[in-house]
Amino acid sequence: MIRESLRPHRDDVLLAVFSVLAGALLWSLGVHNNGARDSLPDWAALVPLTVIGSMELLRRTAPAVTLPVGAACLIADQFTVGNLATVVIFTDLMYAAVVYGKPALARVLPVATGLLTVAVTIAAVAWLRTPQSLLIGVITGIVTFGPALTGATLRNHREAADAARLRAEQTTLLAEMDRAQAVAAERARMARELHDMVANHLSAIAIHSTAALSIDSPATSREALGVIRENSVQGLAEMRRLIGLLREAGAGPEAGAVPSLDGLDSLIAQARTNGCASGLDFVLDDRRPPGEPLPAPVELAAYRIVQESLTNALKHAAPGAVRVEVARAGGLLTVRVDSPYGDRPGPRAPGSGAGLIGMRERAELLGGEFAAGAAGTVWQVRASLPAEERAVSG
What we know:
2 domains, alpha+beta, 11 helices, Heat Shock Protein 90, 5 strands, about 400 residues, rod-shaped
């Protein structure tokens, strides 16, 4: 049973049949290469023809076998009347050995046949000493070196095309990976923006709506509804701004980011209004030197960290003062938020923990540091961000 790896190609079967039939036709017409041979009958030329023709079946799958067998048949043909088809088939076997053979064989054959051609030419000229003896070297080159050189050229082109196709596939794969990473980064950025902009307003709405439902007082309900309406309007405005940013063509990661540290006063005032019912007070200590601008990504990140810290205080802090400190020193912008930590009476909004993750991501994306945790009866938020444009852009 023939192994699957040695099964002949359909084109090779057709080539073998056609080659043998063409050689038989030439023999029947009396077309011979070597003239009459007294030692062997004319039909003896069909033996090497048939053997070398059968080698065409394995020209792709076993070129290391077909080439020496083909060479033996070519030599045997020289002792008969000769058949042109035998010579032509051998040139095809030489070509196939270079194209389909192992890389080592493909490298050796052009060199070896070239040296053989030179050696035969020199030997023929030295032995016969006639100008016609050069034809022996030419024929040898046509039969051996020519097909080997042609096969080597074709194989080099194929290998170059395969390498180019592989590089193109790798480039496409890398581009797809870059695109997926960019999409994931953009989704994470959108999630942080959406959470930071809306969570503050929704937390205030949840706290005051719970107070309005749990406390049976018209004055308390009216005050709570006023706060709810104010936060609803502001939250809707923030959502519209975010949608507008997403629709802008060519917008950068922080394109159109309006919030900055100059708006901390308004942010504290809003938090003071939302937290008065929970016994919370908010104090801002801005120690930044005047007239020293910050990179836009740093300002936005610091603003969002303060905003999320105030939102968490509205959700979880015990009654007392929430202190916000912003300072710049030694090329760093530091943000500190301290809020009372402990049991708190009254309504409380649930939390998911996404706010702390978003604050940490904002700091780390800029090459800064972030920490949050309880220290006794105080919940501390600490963020250090690079305050220089060179550090941020690097």
